[in-house]
Design goal:
Elements lengths: L12 E5 L3 E2 L5 E2 L2 E8 L9 E5 L26 E2 L4 E2 L4 E5 L14 E2 L4 E2 L9 H15 L6 E5 L1 H12 L6 E5 L7 H15 L17 H15 L2 H7 L17 H14 L4 H13 L10 H4 L6 E7 L7 H13 L4 E6 L13 H12 L10
Parallel strand pairs: 5-8, 5-11, 6-7, 11-12, 12-13, 13-14
Antiparallel strand pairs: 1-4, 2-3, 4-8, 9-10
GO molecular function: homoserine O-acetyltransferase activity; homoserine O-succinyltransferase activity
GO cellular component, one term: cytoplasm
Pathway: Amino-acid biosynthesis; L-methionine biosynthesis via de novo pathway; O-succinyl-L-homoserine from L-homoserine: step 1/1
């Protein structure tokens, strides 16, 4: 089938959990909801399930459209669907909006059952470990005891890695794409600047801006603009925008360059769609993730119990999650004699390359995923 074959019209579902969830911080969520979507059909022995973990601003809406009028499909539609690299004729694919999100799962913008008001600043800090634990609860509810694969890019790749640590017997394959075992100091610094832009916005109100009927739009806009600079490579920005001017030079501080126009557009668009409190929590989860911390910084020890087979994939122009960081994961897995394939893809898009329909990249994913056996006693 064609790469352009869409999954078609899809609809989100909501799973409710009434059993308390203790978070890594020690906070307890008495109950919570997770919004998710599924694509394809779960087979008889439930051996063909694939979980997709989203990145910083991702959602459960991975593929397909909600109506024929939808302008854009799900964020990884180029990867997921009939005949695509993650083939829904073979796999049952699950996309989840993480805890703390702003697209239907329990988070700062959702209603706190204890107060009947939005959680706001009271919603606890969530971590990669918390997300994986809540995702495991969802799989329990769906009756899925083991995943054929867990896949994620960037922050999603950290979740895929954490799945193999926290639930080694529940994952057969892990695809860790454009990711890292922890953030560098520079990445933590970028996240802090983004958070400060939000927190110091006069409309932030300590995170309880819902009660004031306002949104810290300026701060969120700046945070997203900063993020976009780091997601693209210098070459990609140069090729797309260069030093092109919008018009004749005006000698002022309004938009003069095409690059400025693009950043402002992306910032405005994001500020109209995303919740600032969620952005703060997602970046903090990135900062905190470090599975080697409990093992004296030894990543090999942290990964010593994993049973999954791995595909680790990086992109040459990604300077935010550089190939060297992926190779740290590969080395730690090889230290444990794990089965791991590694690919470093030549691509100009920077960190965003994991979202692009690059032919070489997709061919690697297609080949790896086509070799995963499902059904009967042959699942491996």
């Amino acid at each position: 089938m064609s790469e352009n074959n869409s999954i078609g019209i899809v609809a989100p579902q909501t799973a409710h959990f009434s059993e308390p969830l203790t978070l890594k911080s020690g906070a307890v969520l008495a109950q919570f909801n997770l919004v998710y979507e599924t694509y394809g059909t779960l087979n008889a022995d439930k051996s063909n399930a694939v979980l997709i973990c989203h990145a910083l601003s991702g959602t459960h809406h991975v593929a397909g459209k909600y109506s024929e009028q939808d302008k854009y499909p799900g964020w990884w539609d180029n990867l997921v669907g009939p005949g695509k690299p993650l083939d829904t004729n073979k796999f049952f694919v699950i996309g989840v909006n993480n805890l703390g999100g702003c697209h239907g799962s329990s988070g700062p913008v959702s209603i706190n059952p204890a107060t009947d008001k939005p959680w706001g600043s009271a919603f606890p800090i969530v971590t990669v470990e918390d997300w994986v634990n809540s995702q495991a609860r969802l799989l329990d509810q769906l009756g899925i005891t083991q995943l054929a694969a867990v896949i994620g890019g960037s922050l999603g790749g950290m979740q895929a890695l954490q799945w193999t640590i926290a639930y080694p017997d529940r994952v057969r394959h892990a695809l860790v794409i454009a990711s890292a075992p922890n953030l560098t100091a520079q990445n933590i610094a970028f996240n802090e600047v983004a958070r400060q832009a939000i927190i110091t916005d006069p409309e932030f109100h300590g995170g309880d801006y819902y009660e004031h009927g306002v949104v810290p739009r300026r701060g969120l806009r700046i945070a997203r603009m900063l993020g976009h600079i780091t997601y693209l490579s210098d070459d990609a920005m140069g090729e797309k925008f260069g030093r092109k001017l919008k018009d004749d030079i005006k000698y002022g501080f309004n938009v003069e360059f095409e690059m400025e126009s693009y950043l402002r557009y992306q910032g405005d668009k994001f500020a109209g769609e995303f919740d600032a409190n969620t952005y703060l929590r997602m970046t903090r989860a990135l900062d905190y993730y470090d599975p080697a911390l409990a093992y004296g910084g030894d990543l090999s020890k942290a990964l010593s119990q994993t049973q999954a087979k791995f595909l680790v994939l990086s992109f040459t122009s990604d300077w935010r999650f550089s190939p060297a960081r992926s190779r740290e994961i590969v080395k730690a897995l090889l230290d444990n004699e794990s089965t791991v394939s590694y690919a470093e893809v030549t691509a100009a898009h920077g960190h965003d390359a994991f979202l692009m329909p690059d032919k070489h990249y997709h061919a690697i994913l297609r080949t790896y995923l086509s070799n995963i056996e499902v059904g009967g006693n042959h699942a491996k």
